[in-house]
Design brief:
Elements (H helix, E strand, L loop, with lengths): L4 E2 L4 E4 L2 E4 L1 E5 L2 E7 L8 E4 L1 E6 L1 E2 L2 E2 L5 H13 L2 E9 L3 H17 L8 E4 L21 H10 L2 E6 L6 H10 L3 E4 L6 H10 L3 E2 L15 H8 L4 E4 L8 H10 L4 E3 L13 E4 L2 E6 L2 E3 L12 H10 L4 H7 L2 H6 L15 E4 L5 E6 L2 E2 L1
Parallel strand pairs: 2-6, 7-10, 10-11, 11-12, 12-13, 13-14, 14-15, 15-16
Antiparallel strand pairs: 1-4, 2-3, 4-5, 6-20, 8-9, 17-18, 18-19, 20-21, 21-22
Helix pairs in contact: 3-4, 5-6
Length: 367
């Protein structure tokens, strides 16, 4: 048995309630909450953050990266408070998807606790009408056989697709059969098409309000479906750029406990880079936004700290904000649940009062 150790915090957020005192961990799990805090106790322990859409971080673009670079990104994400992240592969040809999946498979086989999960594939079955920053030349017809071949190439936890494409129902069925979360994104689907996709097995929207048919009074599209439908997980890029504070507040009000806040981060996130060329993208970073030359948003450079501050600015309760940073994503990625309760896995992020990350723990190991 490993020796019990204290986190040195002043409080812990446990099942949404603030509990004064320190937290002890042992053997990779939370041992006890509410110890009298020691001298210098600082910060609050919250459930370790999970991100289901990370295109890159710390200067690394996941698509096409080798094992060493992916490991560097995982370490940078841990420093930012993210205990688990789904490397998101996008905007590449089929061979590129397969190479990235094979590389990730090797990493996870060597170290299943490295902080990376099975992949999120954002493509190749997307809509040209809502390509966003993606290269439409990499989009292909929805084909269940092709989808199965990608699943065979390496570990996949989540796929974003456009359900209005011919053949998408069969693709969704193939994904559900393999236990993969199906999410709607980069799609021109109307609400009826989204509802049909749900009947086939879709359970999420990747980044609500962005990259899909726009919400309108008589044509609510994927956003209307996601917000109106219990059980659908609502992804949200809460970086202060993709959605306004009023829209953040509305999303949390309409879909309580179903919002999954994501960075949608790209390689410059977690760095001071103002220009980035990689993965077929040329991106300029200014005023907290990452854009292509034509002004199109190209993911974000957000960190968990920045997103928590944006959620606070939108009036989201702290406990609700923290829940949205981990629980829905962990469920979608098949990671289980944790809430800093005794017996829970010791996946913990420690935050200062200003939401800066003081420490990150995964399986009881300080990263």
């Amino acid at each position: 048995m490993s020796r019990s150790q204290r986190l040195g915090v002043a409080a812990a957020l446990v099942d949404g309630a603030m509990v004064p005192g320190d937290v002890s961990i042992a053997d990779g799990v939370v041992e006890q909450v509410g110890h009298p805090p020691g001298d210098g106790a600082r910060g609050v322990a919250v459930p370790g953050f999970v991100d289901w859409q990370v295109n890159g971080f710390g200067g690394v673009h996941f698509t096409g990266a080798d094992a060493g670079a992916m490991g560097e990104a995982a370490s940078a994400l841990a420093r930012a408070g993210i205990v688990f992240a789904a490397p998101t592969f996008l905007s590449t040809d089929l061979a590129g998807y397969r190479r990235s999946l094979a590389e990730l498979g090797g990493i996870l086989a060597a170290d299943p606790t490295c902080g990376l999960t099975a992949a999120h594939l954002e493509g190749p079955f997307l809509s040209r009408a809502f390509a966003g920053a993606h290269d439409p030349s990499t989009f292909v017809a929805a084909d269940p056989g092709l989808m199965r071949s990608l699943l065979d190439a390496g570990p996949v936890a989540m796929v974003t697709l456009a359900p209005e494409l011919d053949g998408s129902a069969d693709v969704i069925a193939a994904l559900v059969e393999r236990g993969v979360t199906v999410s709607i994104g980069h799609s021109d689907a109307d609400a009826a098409a989204a509802r049909f996709a749900q009947r086939c097995g879709a359970t999420a929207i990747t980044h609500c309000w962005n990259g899909h048919r726009r919400f309108a009074p008589r044509d609510p599209g994927p956003a209307g479906w996601a917000l109106d439908t219990p059980g659908v997980t609502v992804g949200l890029v809460a970086d202060g750029v993709h959605v306004a504070p009023e829209v953040v507040a509305l999303t949390f009000a309409v879909a309580p406990r179903r919002v999954a806040v994501t960075t949608d981060a790209i390689a410059p996130a977690g760095t001071d880079l103002e220009h980035w060329n990689g993965g077929g993208f040329h991106v300029e970073v200014a005023e907290g936004a990452a854009r292509l030359a034509d002004g199109t948003l190209a993911g974000s450079v957000a960190t968990p700290t920045r997103m928590l501050r944006e959620l606070e600015r939108a009036g989201v309760d702290f406990a609700d904000a923290v829940h949205a940073m981990s629980a829905p994503q962990a469920q979608a990625l098949g990671l289980g649940q944790w809430a800093v309760r005794p017996g829970d896995p010791a996946h913990v992020t420690v935050l200062a009062d200003d939401h800066e990350v003081l420490a990150t723990w995964r399986n009881g190991v300080r990263l």
